[in-house]
Amino acid sequence: MSDSTLPASGVALVTPVRVAVARKRRSKRMRTLFPYLLVAPAVLYLLMITLYPGAYAVYQSFFLVRFNSWTPIGFENYADLFADREFWAALWNTLVIGVLALALECFFALMLAYFAYRDPWVQGWRIAFLVPMLFMPSAVAFIYKLAFLDGRVISDLLMRVGLISENLAIPSSIWLSRATLILADVWQWTPFLFIIFVAALQGQDEEVEEAARLDGASWWQIFWNISLPLMRPVIAVALVLRGIDITTMFANVFIITKGGPGGATETISYFIYRLGFKSFNFGYASAASVIMLVITIVVAQLVVKRAFRSGRT
Q: What are the tens digits of pLDDT across the range 139-155?
């Protein structure tokens, strides 16, 4: 019997089978490609805003760039940077401000996370700890500039309670200027570490803590001897993320101190800005950016590797 003589019911039985096989083939192919199609726009966007500018900066660092004039000079920019005292001073300022700010943020975030994880009253107010992170960095910088410099609000309060006899000379004091930058950064970004640490505590096995509690351990002993060691890889990753962000600190320096006094608060980001957009030495600024990028990647890699290695032992 030929296909033309098949009854209508036979066609109705054959056709769905062929359609189902075709759909099955297409669905298998689409299941393989679908995840890549979903992430493709994000990957392309990240490549455009990270890979291309980075490669362009590396290329530009081998030239003496003055607006449209590009003169090849090889590694001369890098050689000049390693002999530049202002560059090393900017690195040192970034290290000092970054380490102090990061240490304080980690300490306060751990304490807040400990009480927010244990204390029912603090748990109910956890959302309030996140408010500083919602402000724009420039807005926070203007608030601290008004409080410590322009408006002298802090100086006035301290004089009223009798702690000081005259206004704080923040613009002319190295450590007071650094302390202002550190305080602004700690106030705004401690909630970032707080969120990560609370999530790490909530993700730990409660049976381990219950066993320690039955053995007579206090909450503080459980946190110090059990919770904190288990959180070490999470803490390392969180500190690396914040450390990378601190190396790019610009808004606070630009608005509050302008790098003063005498360049004591000029971070590497402000140094690069000053070279590129004030001196218009774009090749030299690009070389400084490349060096800072390499240093950041190496340090971050070493910290994360060491933390995860120690977390497994």
A: 999 999 999 888 788 88
Structure letter (DSSP) for residue 248: T
Say yes or no to pLDDT of 43 above 70. yes
- Nearest-angstrom CA–CA distance, 269 and 253: 9
- Token pair recorded at residue 190: 């401690």
Helix/strand/coil percent split, the chain, to 5: 80, 5, 20
Global confidence as pTM: 0.80
Q: SS3 letters for 179-229?
A: HHHHHHHHHHHHHHHHHHHHHHHHCCCHHHHHHHHHCCCCHHHHHHHHHHH
CB atoms within 10 A of CB 100: 16
Residue among 115, 110, 120 nearest 219 (CA): 115
The 10s digit of each residue's pLDDT in 171-189 is 888 999 999 999 999 999 9
Per the omega criterion (within 30 degrees of 0), is the bond before 35 cis?
Answer: no
Counting other chains too, the contacts that 119-126 makes at CB distance below 8 Å and 24 or more residues apart are 126/198
Residue among 266, 110, 245, 136 nearest 190 (CA): 110
